[in-house]
Amino acid sequence: MTVSSLPFASIENDLLRVDYLTTTGPRIIGLYAKGASGNLLAETPEVHWPTPHGEYYLRGGHRLWIAPENPFYTCPEDNVIVVTQNDLVILRSIIDVSGLEKEIHFHLNKNRVELIHRVTWYGNEPIAFAPWAITQLRLGSMAILPQSYSNGLQPNRNLVFWPYSQVNDERLELHDDLILVHGRGREQAFKVGTNNSPGWIACALGDALFVKRFTVNNTQKYPDMGCNVEAYVKDSCIELETLGALTTLKPNESVTHKEIWEVTVGEYPPMLKTAREISKQPSLK
After folding, report:
1. How far apart are the first and last CA of the chain?
2. Rounded distance between C-alpha atoms, residue 223 and residue 214, angstroms
3. Between these two residues, 152 and 109, which has the higher pLDDT value?
4. Could you give the CA distance from residue 134 to residue 221 in angstroms, rounded to a whole number?
């Protein structure tokens, strides 16, 4: 089975096409840019694992979760409501057995995809979590996480490792101004997180550049030891992840998290020189 064998629909303009599943999700499974080769997103139809509520199939592409990660809130994606309003697509899950309802709203704007993620809590007691937007991109690429490097006496950077991450993993490349994670497939997973003040992260895909922009709020607390961005790589994909602030929701309350994806076609080999050139772009200052 492939992801594309599941029912899906698309929206497109002169520069981009976005594919999304119409019977399960919410899930974006395809991102295509005119002039770039193939799907920029990873396809992982064979990846799945058990949860307390049944088997979870990863599918690939872009999904919405909550952090800190807890297996109880990972539920099989059964059924999705699709609403289209002119050029806007809304993907809304049913309320899952853990009490969560997830929505992804998106539309195209030239070479950008503008997204709003919403999580609504339908449990019986208040709960604290952060919305967590995860984009799986194809291997052979390179994640770019900019750092705020400057003079001063107070700490301004953090670097968070997950228990399975080896600090000497060859896929991690550290520089004062950049954290790079290379999308080389290995059986051993690697993940790193940080608190990002520039408000963007990116992935160099060879013939295209994928940039995620998001809002930074330094007055709020974030999960995972203060991370608002994370990068993960294993044997089927590399993930670019952004997180909203930790929020306490009462029953029937929601929290939202916005992203803007920007895709530029060109020569973007996965190397430090490329990352430095990208970080100097005026639009990313």
Report:
1. 43
2. 16
3. 109
4. 19
* Owner of token pair 């339908």: 122
pLDDT at 236 over 60: yes
CA distances from 143 to 17, 99, 270 (A): 22, 33, 8
What is the count of structural domains for the chain? 1
For the record, the structure tokens of 134 come out as 């995860």
Asked if the model's pLDDT at residue 165 lies above 60, the reply is yes
**Is residue 63 classed as helix, strand or coil in its secondary structure?**
strand
- What is the rounded distance in angstroms from the CA atom of residue 61 to the CA atom of residue 31? 8
pTM value surpassing 0.85: yes
Say if residue 284's pLDDT is above 70. yes
Cα–Cα distances in angstroms (integers) from residue 89 to residues 107, 114, 117, 132, in the given order: 6, 11, 12, 19
What is the CATH number for 99?
A: 2.70.98.10
- Give the C-alpha separation, 34 to 37, whole Å: 8
Domain that includes residue 172, residue range: 3-284
Tokens for 123, please give them. Answer: 């449990």
| Cβ proximity of 25 and 82 under 8 Å | no
What is the Cα–Cα distance from 251 to 126, expressed in whole angstroms? 6
